[in-house]
Amino acid sequence: MADRSKRQRISRAASTSQVTNNVPPMFGGSQPDARVASDGEPGSFVEGSILRIAMNNFLTYELAVVNPGANLNMIVGANGTGKSSIVCAICLGLAGKTALLGRGDKIGLFVKRGCSRGSIEIELYKNGGNVVINREISTENLSQWTLNGKSCSQKVVEEEVKGLQIQVSNLCQFLPQEKVGEFAKMSRIELLEATEKSVGPPEMYTYHCELKNFRGRERELENTVNEKAAFLERAKQKNESNKLDMNRYYEKKRHLDMIELLEKKKPWVEFEAVRKEHESVKTEREEVKKRLSSLKQTHGPMLKKIQLINNQLEPIEAQIKTKTFDIKEAARKCKARRDQLDRKQKEIDDIKQALNLKHTEKVDEEKRIANTKTIIDDLQKELATVGEQPDVAPRIDAISVELRGHQEERARLDGEKSDIRREKDNMVAESKSVRLNDMNNMMKAKEDKLKVRHKDTFTAIQWLRQNRQLFSGNVHEPMLLVLNVKDPRFAKYVETHIAFNDLRGFLFEKREDMEAFMKEVRDKLKLRVNSILAPAVSCANKQPSRPIESLKRFGFYSYLREMFDAPTDVVSYLCHQYNVHDVPVGTAQTKAMINKVIEEPYLKLIYTAEERYVVKKSMYSNHVSTNNSQLRPSKFLTISVDAEEKGQVEQQIQNCERKIKDLDERLAGLRENFSILEGRDNELRNEKKGLLEQKGKKRQLEQKIATKLDSLQQIEKNRVDLKKLEEDTKTKIGAVNAQKVAMMVEVMAQIKLRASLSMLKVHLTLQTLGLTAEKTHLEGSCKDRQMNRMNSCVLCECSVHWFSEESQGLVSVQAFSTLPDTMEELDALLNEECSRAEGFTGIRENVVEEYNRREVEIQNLEEELGDLSEALTTYRMNMSEAKERWLNPLRTLICQINERFGEYFRSMQCVGEVDLHSEKEEEYDKYGIRIRVKFHNSTELHELTAHHQSGGERSVSTMLYLMALQELNRCPFRVVDEINQGMDPINERRVFNIVVRTACKETTSQYFFITPKLLQDLQYAEEMTVLCIHNGPQMLSPGDWDEKAFLRRIARRKKRTKPE
């Protein structure tokens, strides 16, 4: 026991309920005193560590105060005592969400049953003054917060907790019982973020988030630059292809301009011929004007009559337009009234339909009344038939007493079964331990024999075990140690087939590892050792050329590959170098049939019971020759052990198996008794149920009759009065019909008005047609007399006028001077230019406009692309600086975690690695932490997932990763709840030792480890704090607990049990 002069840390626990936290010191033979929780000196606590947890009406606690220590806090207690309640108090008291605990989504569920309010108070260590957070909760899901005695909001508490680097939502810091399995389910990315928040510098996670945002912006800029560059390239290519079309366009335009010029020159040539006639035409025009004036005087009266007709037509046409408008208005009003009539008719239909529905309801109501009365009659008859029932209460009480007795018997059987299972588990563990010791003895014997036979190889093995971390790939010890022959009889075949230099050689996965090993061992240490390199492509899964079933007729029963177990790399080398997958092993029958066997063309090397045969076939004469040799006994792969010691081991194993069998038989008997009790319980429950039903049948019938009578009374009260309803319906329909009649009168008036207006419009239209015909006749008579002469005069005048205007427009064109002056030469040149212009086909008219517009776009794009490229370069430079600020510290951090994680796994004879994984270096949102573990020599490293490893292996990996974070910890405390439940005793002991060794260092922060059990003979440390939680009906009140008396009783008990 530890020196009692040292100050003990004592957990104060007060309770007015039956649940208390009493914490006695730990006792053991030679193990140190694991001191219980205390206030701790302020200097030993990290800022943010928990000094005190007080719970009032919270889950299992009525009133309790816990004072944890500054380092490792072991919270131990049976299931249901309230260990996880402390975890819940830490989470909820520090403003954590209820979803983090996996128990319920409402805060009111955490109030002690039977109470309406509860509270949590947590005191945190802080330089300059501790922080006290109080949260009062109610069953109405309400919370009230106080910080250092002052009321505040939850947001203020969250900020204070965040400032102390506490992250209860981070599984790397706070791992409650219900979330243990989720740690292995975390993705690489989630694990990296949780690790950054937990142990990284405060700015590391911020830098990571900024880099992810920067990368998104960079991708946007890259896409924009690439799109702009591609668009610019397409525009340049398009303009380059359009340049030829533009040149052809200008060439064609020159020809068209010449054609236009020639067309304009032709009128000038024609004008010269016409100009000479112009003078005579002018004189003739004057004469025509004089004749036209006289004709106008002659036809004056006829023109006046036409004007009079026009004056009569104008008012008539105005009247026709007015009548047309009136007709349309009358039609619109008529249509509106008809729509109103349709709506009124629909209203009448709705009223009739409502009446029909009431009729239907009336019929249904009568049916319900009749059915209800029938049911009441039936119930009354049944009630009348139920006479006075015998008193069944005594029988019910007797059954209840018997059921309670059965329940107590079942509880006793459950306890006995639990004891038997516990004893069986201990026997199984003892059997496994005996087998493991036997295997270790075999390996030790192999190593001793190798040390005698080849000391240099043994020395190199010792060096490799101490320096395995120097190699990046797999390095396997000599095959003499790693080969495991399935049957000692097979050892001679394996040892004969594989050269001894290879059996004692070290096998490497990577060439650089092999060269480094040989440099250290052979060149520096001057040891004579062999090294071999595994094939680059694995041959471990190579299949034989023929299935063994096809060779059984010759006595062969197995291939050499199936006779031993070895690591994958070793099997791959042996398949590649020695073809062990294709070398069959036979029996004495094979020896007897050897002449037939060697005739098989595919058998090159075979083994019989005692000989080795090598078959060769000449390439020239096809002659078959054989070389056989006697098999030598195995020297290494079959290690002889002390027969007496082996017998003792086998006897121990048999004893364990016999005890396990006896325990199984006892357990089966208990199960049978339990099943009999269950059957009897079911019979009693059914009988009790029938008696209770019989007892309450009369009361049930009376209640049903009363209910039906109430229902019948309610139905009759709400009966529908059809006569009154029909009278109301007739009244409503009459009112609607009166409205319809008024509307119909208006419709008929509008129809009559429309008919009269239509007749008047027809009369006016006929009058207009007569005047129009008379006007047309007069105009025709006037025009026929003068049309011919006027047309000729006007035509001549217009021609001269046109030639005059065209000539004035073309006189200023100097290009006419270079063109021919005769019509024949003009036509010839015009035909030539037309032919040339027609040769330019497929040219768009807007090609020049597109070319010029695209040139402007290209210039703008080049300027914009230059600006974007410059911005992208600057952005990448800034990202590179941010990346260095984030990635270098992160890699250093991961290396530190990997070093500690690997060290912990090596201490357990396992392998574990942690690395930073990313598919692409610049994809910052894809970075993640990859955990790879190997628990067996025969397997390879596999990534930690929720499916590949067993539950115990996941728990071990999770615990060791959290311990690797412990010394790097930036958070003030860490909580792990019942993570050791899936571990076997060996791993649980190893993990416990690592936890104690790591969490009890002065440089580490506070650690809470919750477990329902502890193995015996564990190693404790002075810095530990153990909180033992008990509850039950016989618990002492905290005020009645006497620690000194308890210690005296323990001392007296030890003296009594001490052997003489």
From TrEMBL:
Pfam families: SMC_N. It is found in: Chromosome. GO terms for molecular function: ATP binding; single-stranded DNA binding. Residues 232-298, 327-423, 646-732, 844-878 form a coiled coil. InterPro entries: P-loop_NTPase (IPR027417), RecF/RecN/SMC_N (IPR003395). GO terms for cellular component: chromosome, telomeric region; nucleus; Smc5-Smc6 complex. Residues 1-10 have a biased composition (Basic residues). Keywords: Chromosome, Coiled coil. Belongs to the SMC family. SMC5 subfamily. This is Structural maintenance of chromosomes protein 5. It comes from Gadus morhua.
